[in-house]
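Consider the following assembly input.
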Amino acid sequence: MSRTAAALVIGNEILSGKIADTNTAFLARGLFELGIELRRVVVCGDEVDTICSELNALRSSHDLVFTSGGVGPTHDDVTIEGVAAAFGRPIVRSEAVESVIRHYYGDRATEAHFRMANMPEGAEMLRSAEAPWPTVVIENVYVLPGVPEIFELKFTDLRKRIDHGHEFHSQAVYTKSGEGEVASLLEEIAQAFPSVMVGSYVKWQAEDYRTKVTFDGNDPEQVAKAADMLVEKLDPALFVRREQ
Amino acid sequence: MSRTAAALVIGNEILSGKIADTNTAFLARGLFELGIELRRVVVCGDEVDTICSELNALRSSHDLVFTSGGVGPTHDDVTIEGVAAAFGRPIVRSEAVESVIRHYYGDRATEAHFRMANMPEGAEMLRSAEAPWPTVVIENVYVLPGVPEIFELKFTDLRKRIDHGHEFHSQAVYTKSGEGEVASLLEEIAQAFPSVMVGSYVKWQAEDYRTKVTFDGNDPEQVAKAADMLVEKLDPALFVRREQ
C-alpha cells in the first residue's frame, strides 16, 4: 500500500494568474519517484481561515502534506498563522531563526523580516548544509516556500527523510494507434493487473507515435507483465518502441 | 462584488508528475482579465466518486466552475460520469456528437470514441465556428478537456459568454527595495485601500529592480491612488518605474 500525500499551494498571485505554479509539478515528480501517491492538490488564497480549514482537511486524510508559499515577510504571507491555527498552537518566535535573519540582513533587518522567525509552538525545524534556512515541520505537515528555486532545494533535501524505499517502477509503450483504438485493450489490461496504473497520452504534435501508454506500480514484475500484454496484443505494424 | 470561480483539474497524469498542468495558469489569467475572482483550484485523480464530491463542494460555493481533463475515450476518462453523478442526472448519448464523431473518425470510429458522445441528461452543448466540438455546460459548470491547445481554444471561446464587463484594473510599481523593507508600507496601503489587492513579488534573478508591487481592483481610481501612495512614500532613490 503506497503512502499518500497532498499539497496545499497558497498564493493570490497564482489564483490571479500573475505567477504560474511550477512547484506542484516538481513535487508530483519527486513524490512519484519515491513511490508516494500524491492524491490531491488544493490552491487557495492568502487567508488564515482558508489555510487552516484546507490544511485540516488534507492532513487528516493523507500521510504527508506539503504546503507551498506564503512564508515571506509581507502582510499577505500568512501561512504560518494558518498552520498554527490548524494545529491549535500559539505562534512563538524562534531565536535560532531570528539569529539567521540578523546575520543575513544585518542593519537592514526590519520587523517584517523578523516575522519570518515566527513558528507554531513545538514545530520541528529541519536544517542542512544545502538548505540552511530551516524548514518548518509539524507532525505530517511540511511548510515550504513558494519561490521555486528554494522550494526545489528544500524538497530535494527532504527526500532522504521521507524515502522509505518503495519507489514506483515504470514502463512505457509507444504506438501508432490512436487513443480510441487502444482504449478497450487498455481497459482489459488495467483489469488484469489491478496493482498497475495504466495511463495513455495522445501526442498532438507530429511524432513517430500517436499514443504513449504508461504502466506504473510498486511491483516491477506486474508492471512488466502489463506492458508485455499490450505489446503482445497490439498489431505489430502499430508498435513503435518500448521504454523500461 | 466580483463573481467567484473555482477549477477542478482532473487527471492521474498530473498527480504523478507525468504532465505539468498549464491550464490552471491560462484559466487564472483569463478570469482575472474578466474581473472574475478565481478562489480555489483542486487537482484530483480520475475517480468518479472523487470528482462528484469535489465538484459538488466547488459548485455550491462559487459562481462559476471549470473542469479540465478526463473527457477522452479511454477507461480512465470518467469526468462525465463524475459530473452526471454530482448533478444526480443519468448519462445519455448525444446524437449530435455521435454524428460529429462518425464524421471525424469514419470507419475507424470505435465504441471507445463514441463514449465521448455521452453527456449528463439535459446538459447544454456550446458550439462555435472556432470550437466545433461541443463544450458541455450544466448550470454553472463548464466541462473542458485537458489537452492544453483545446482547453485554451474552448475557454477563449467561452469568454464572450461569461464576460459581464467588470474587468480588473492593474498597476505595478518596481522598486529597488527588498520585500522586507517595504512590507510595513504595503500593509498600510492595503489597509487604506481595502478594495485594492496589493501583491509583492521578489525578483531573484538580477534585474534593475528587487521587488515588483502590484495593485489590482475593479475601481481604476482606487487602484491608481493606492499606487500613488507607494510612489509618494517610497525613497525616490529606490523607485525604478511604474506600469499603468
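The longest strand of chain B covers residues 37-44. Ask yourself how this observation constrains the way the partners meet.
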